[in-house]
Amino acid sequence: MQTGWSSLDVNESLKKSLLVMSRGFLQLPNRSDRYCGLIISLFQYCLPLQFYWRHGVCRCNPMSLAKINNKTFTAHLYLDGRPMVLNQQRLQQALYDPRITNGEKLDAEVALADSRKPSIITLADHEDDTPLVLKFVPKGNEYIINLELPGTFEGAQLFIEDTTENLLASTSAPVQYFSFRTASVLKASLSDIDPGPAYVELISKPSNRPLYRHVSRGVNAFVSAQPNATGHNAFNQLPATFVIKLIKQPPVTA
Prior knowledge:
CATH class of the largest domain: Mainly Beta
Number of helices: 5
Distance between the termini: 58 Å
Strand content: 25-35%
Low-confidence stretches: 1-15, 43-66
Mean pLDDT: 80
Shape: globular
Number of strands: 16
CATH architecture of the largest domain: Trefoil
């Protein structure tokens, strides 16, 4: 019999069971977003904990904390092979297309002159278009996501618009936070994606809801609410699963 405390990381079989349960639950077609959030919150709290044995009894150490993010990094995001971009970028790129019709050109010019449409976060029209550079600035276990883009949106940050729940960029909106999760880590950090490209879901705070892809009038957008307007759970969409690729910084030379 053990007479003192011996520290053990979370039992691997327990961790795997929790993750399998969570992923299975999140993929149910008739799941409720409300209960989905509760499940995610429960696992985010439980997984980082450590367990100890004392006199044959398993106990939990309440002082065990999740990893704290402390490094800023830059990255590109992709969905279905196409890079995430600012709608301003997409519209400007469209004007250089030699095959653009006069009607399409006028539509793009009108959209660029609009006060809101250029700020929408969307997908590029082509896979080889230049991706948006996103700067992830850590705040505890969450991130402020800034744009590294010269011009009107220099220093802008991502935020969820109250009225539409669209993902937009702004230089004046109140600070909002995001986190991201992978298939194995419900609240991931740089170390979880540093080895190479990874699949991630972006989570908006404080709603604790993932982003969904929503296509309206041929334009891709991202929203923090289930875009299924039918009312039937069978038509619920799964969250957008992005590929995140870190932008490696060149080594500092003397």
